[in-house]
Write a structure and sequence with these properties.
Blueprint (H helix, E strand, L loop, with lengths): L2 H12 L5 H13 L1 H16 L10 H51 L5 H10 L13 H10 L4
């Protein structure tokens, strides 16, 4: 084993993460290489000098403050999640209704209102006298009465 590879494996060996073959190979290398042996001894002393507590406990207020933060945000999400399926169609319906009312208003304002004389003149202008010979309840008769504004 080369020194570069051995130095990478020393830390894993000290942590107990090295497999059987790699462990044996590293131990053989440490017996013959003074630099790697020195590296191992330094890391071993450093690790043994660090005192790690068995169990780290959180302050008593930590969990309650986390729960409080979760509960502060949760109602907002639940309300929006429940209202979204209702609000989107309602908003679409409202926009559709308002646009229909606006277009109806515009059409009523733009629709020309003709007097009987103007309707007759328009009828002659459009050359609609062709329907004059049609029977009384035929489509041309209904059309002519609509154009002239008469109801039968």
């Amino acid at each position: 084993m080369k020194c570069t590879k051995a130095k990478k494996h020393i830390s894993r060996y000290l942590d107990g993460e090295l497999g059987g073959d790699e462990k044996a190979e590293l131990l053989r290398h440490l017996k013959v290489c003074q630099d790697c042996q020195h590296e191992y001894e330094n890391l071993y002393r450093i690790l043994n000098s660090i005192e790690v507590p068995e169990e780290i406990s959180a302050p008593p207020y930590l969990f309650s403050s986390i729960r409080q933060k979760i509960h502060e945000r949760e109602p907002q999400r639940v309300i929006m999640r429940r209202l979204k399926p209702v609000l989107v169609p309602a908003l679409f319906s409202f926009v559709f209704l308002v646009s229909g009312l606006i277009s109806s208003f515009i059409v009523q304002r733009l629709e020309p209102q003709y007097s009987k004389e103007e309707s007759a003149a328009l009828k002659l202008t459009l050359n609609l006298t062709v329907f004059d010979d049609a029977p009384a309840t035929s489509f041309p008769d209904i059309y002519n009465s609509m154009i002239s504004g008469e109801t039968k």
